Amino acid sequence: MVSSSLSSGVQPTQECLEKFQELKTGKKLSYVVYGLSEDKKSIVVLKTSEDKDFDTFVGELPEKECRWAVYDFEFTLPGGEGVRNKLVFVVWSPDDANVKNKMMFASSKDALRRRLEGIHIEIQATDFSEITKDAILEKALRR
Amino acid sequence: MAYKAGPIYPCNPATARSESTKLGVDPKGEKLIYTNGRAVIIRDLNHTGLSHAYTQHTRSATVARFSPSGYYAASADVSGEVRIWDVTNPENNLKLAIRPLSGKINDLAWDGESKRIIVGGEGKDKFGAAFFMDSGSSCGEITGHSKPINALSIRHQRPFKAISGSDDNSIIFHSAVPFKYDKMINTHSRFVRDVAFSPNGDLFASVASDGKLFLYDGKTGETKGEAGREGGSSLMACSWNLDSQSIATAGADGIVSIWDASSLKSTQSYTVGSDVQSQQNGIVYAGPNSLVSISLSGVLNIFDTRESTSTKWRTLHGATKAITASTLSGDTEKEVTFYTGSFDGSIKRFDIGESYGADEGRCDEVQGTGHTANVVAFSTDYKGKVYSAGWDDKVSSIDGQSFSSTSLPIKAQPSGVAATSNAIYVATSSGLEVHPAGSNSTFLLSKDAVTAVAAHGGPNSDSVAYGVGKKVILSSTSPEKELATFEDSKGDVLSLRFTKDGKYLAAGDSAGRIILVDVEEKEVTVSSRWTFHTGRIVDLAWSKSDKRLASVGLDENVYIWDRKKVAKNIAIKNAHPGGVTGVSWLGDEKLITAGSDGIVRTWIVPA
């Protein structure tokens, strides 16, 4: 009776929200990668980085394990109107990951996602072809 | 002037099981502010007649708070709209109307300077918002929760801070101004129901459904102590005493407790009851010695904390749901009782009349077993007995302050009741039932679905008027004979009233038309002139001298017609949001109306 049947009861740590705030306001951090803790009872920060390179960020996503991430996506507006930044929430759920891992991630996602205010784009990728710069750019330009 | 609004006798706060009811109090501790349906009620704790209702919300209002300055009130509703309005004048001029969230707002807090407001609830993508009260522009963000926010509080001293408690079991500590996420506090293991900074800002408290009360440092958010039993009953609300030394909690176990802030021990407690209706849903300190709580039943309990006995306290009553029927009973104008019935079967009584003095408008429950379903109609037999008909298929009678132990069972769903000294007539979906006085047998005067009934008592025989579809049928009872049928109504006849001498009969229908019948001549004297209502007529009442007729209906209007001057009328527009459902005259110039807003209003209509 504690939480709804859709959520797993797993909660993010203080650090998760702190790093998100740092990325949002500080403009130094470029991405934060989240995952489940060892005991699978909480969501923890696995990596943060100031490296702006998109490919480096994609490199952080393992082939057989799920991750969540927030990435500060930088792009130029068509017509050369300027450079913009938008926050992207990535739900990385590779097809090769095991079902138990994917289930835990899907049911715990909201506990993290709803606490992060200010996300413009949400991307769900099940393999590397779905997390390309073009895919994100298309969503960023849509609005 | 055509009419003047008199004092109102407000509804009590709306309550719901397992939900906190937010009670606010003005800076002077004299008035309570709360919501019920679309109305925001400001209720004087010591004078019933000095209450005020603000009804400008278009959707159900959920919370209302006075500003610390006392000049404004901010109220929010289920659609996420916040209205900020002036409380110092009766027109309640609107300062700002804004929609900061796209869903239900559960709580609202003012900052110490009465400049900024934060709201919390459930929106599409966010659960809280912060804005300036004059411009509506944002002054920060209230973020960090993953489930709806239940309560908020702002520290009134510098450094400014804010706290929010949510269904995700966590409390978020925000720095202010501008409002920004600071840290998450995970002390509770169940839904956090209420959070509050102490008036001096040194501490803040949180209560939750895990039965615990936690205290924290007001500046750093560090946990200082906890109270309450593990696995204890939910604590639904908390309120600090004005001296910041103690805090009161309202529990779902029906107990109101006062805790000392330094020792975290319970120093006083009041047990309101152990049944479900006694669950305490809200609490607020109105003065250093005055604590107000609300039970699930809707009754407001006012405790004087100086008194050591904890078994007796003052209670404030009022209708809690939409009023569906009403009636006035009493011989003299100075001392009468107004009864109101609601769709859940509850019936309340109001003392009205000069002889009550300052206590006029006092509301009380009618003791005893009443109805368990919708109350559709009342009737008085002018001997002091009041009859009520309900959808639990029975007619109960009320003698003064309590229900009689016996009730009359009826065979089908009633829509109206009329009582004379000879019999009780009940209009039902299967016919007009007649229950003669002093006899157990009943018989049917008509087998069609009867929508309304009125009766005028005579020494041996009664004149009975009843509505079947669009027809008004006039009958006498002994001998049992149909005297006339009138077919001037344009909709189903929903309300019928004889004048006291039985010479005239008014009939109101579902299309808004009222016809006037001259009973002796058996003809309709007013047919299409009294058609100003734009919706169904719910009730009719003749003034004491029978010269004027008041009609009320679903279109929220009250019309007063004059039998001698049929072309003129007095209109009271939008008297009750949601529709007016009952009207009674006190003498020839005072009107009492009840409506779907649960409020009883009085009006002076000079002849």
Automatic annotation (TrEMBL), chain A:
Pfam families: Cofilin_ADF
Subcellular location(s) of the protein: Nucleus matrix
Major localisation: nucleus
Gene Ontology biological process terms, A to Z: actin filament depolymerization
GO molecular function, one term: actin binding
InterPro entries: ADF-H (IPR002108), ADF-H/Gelsolin-like_dom_sf (IPR029006), ADF/Cofilin (IPR017904)
Presence of the UniProt keyword GTP-binding in the record: no
PROSITE patterns noted in UniProt: ADF_H (PS51263)
Annotated keywords: Actin-binding
GO cellular component: actin cytoskeleton; nuclear matrix
Domain ADF-H: from-to ranges: 7-141
Organism superkingdom: Eukaryota
Family per record: Belongs to the actin-binding proteins ADF family.
Protein name: Cofilin
Gene source species: Kwoniella mangroviensis CBS 10435
UniProtKB/TrEMBL annotation, chain B:
Domain Anaphase-promoting complex subunit 4-like WD40 positions: 485-544
Ranges of the WD repeats in the UniProt entry: 54-95, 185-226, 239-269, 530-562, 573-607
GO molecular-function terms, A-Z: actin filament binding
Biological process terms in GO annotation: actin filament depolymerization
A Pfam family per the record: ANAPC4_WD40
Keywords of the record: Repeat, WD repeat
Domain of life: Eukaryota
GO CC terms of this entry: cortical actin cytoskeleton
UniProt xrefs under InterPro entries: Apc4-like_WD40_dom, WD40/YVTN_repeat-like_dom_sf, WD40_repeat_CS, WD40_repeat_dom_sf, WD40_rpt
UniProt protein name: WD-repeat protein
Origin species: Kwoniella mangroviensis CBS 10435
